[in-house]
Amino acid sequence: MAKRTKRAIAGLVAALVALVFGAVVVSAVGHTWQVTIIGPHGGQFVYTVTADTEAEAEDAGWAQQRARFTTEAVPVASSCEAPPWVGCKGAYPPSTWQPYSDRSVFNRPIPADGTPTLPNSARLVQNLHLPDYNHTRTFGDPLRHGSSPAIYWPADDDPLVRLRCTGRCVDEFGNDFEGEEVPLPAGAEPSGGFGTDHDAQMVIANGYTGWEYDCWHVSSRIDGVLTATNCGKARIDGGGVLSGGASLNAAHFGGMAGLIRAPEFADNQIDHALAIVAPCAGSSVYPATGSGDRCANPADGVPLGTRFQFTLSHPQIDALNIGPWQKAILHAFHEYGAYVSDTMCPGGDCGWSFEYEGEDAYTSLGEPNPWPEYAASKGFTGFLSHGYRTYRMPIGEGIPFAGNVRAVPPPPPD
Question: What is the pTM for the complete model shown?
């Protein structure tokens, strides 16, 4: 290939990269060059390189920038308004967005006709303890929900943290990624705060690379090192299943799989399957690969990965005398189903619940918390909990679960 053609291609690549990351300023003293890269959201990154020419110095600077923010070359948008959802501080994907690909098991509707009921459906529904459902959910105090993953979408001026796992850092393909660096907003905390006496879960959704990092038992962030027991890593535009074996939930699903997020709750629109926590499991079925808490009697288990469906039709759901947020949950429960992603109590002597995004992603960064704001807008009376104005909202109250839930097979693997 001619040098002129190579140079033209290199110029085109540099122009495309500049569209993604922003402007470039190069200065030099002798053969030592300082390359300053200005990101689209104002972040500045300075690299010192040794090179003979300005072009070589610029190439070396971009190489360091790509190594800093990417693990593979992925085209990204330069605006937080468009997929694959480059993170901006204070901005989150809207209710119309759904994590993972259209072919993910979490985004494939249950066919209206011909979907069979599993032969052991009655036993599975019984084991779910439907009458014991936690009928309310509190919003406002993040310390009450140490098992609800906090989801962070870092911006390009956020500091980097190096991941350290006392257990395993394994991606969806089974590869170890301990020591990898990812951007994370200053002040970001896991659900319920740092520690190992609760789940302390955190999802870092890096829109620049298309990878999410799902960490459990996040115990500290010291000197640029984020320490957790286990972390998984999955494609945001992938299948949402971490078959490699490390995740923040027992089923080894992606950290955002099935979570009810604040924008969805507020807009009464959920366009994906739900995640539910069962009393106990001890085994798993596709698409799950974990085991979870065992039941005192193995016959009482609800295997991780089991898919349930609320059987009332959409018109029947709309006719129920319940809140619009409850109807949104039921519409998703009917259209896409709900997968068992985790367990709630060893032995199984408790109820079940849906899974929600953690409020720490808002409160730890000093951002407005949309969860209690929505509750207040619906006329609920708040109370103080750990200094937070907190609201208790009905979720299961008034819903005829009994006789209207069945277990169904998941969509087949591609």
Answer: 0.80
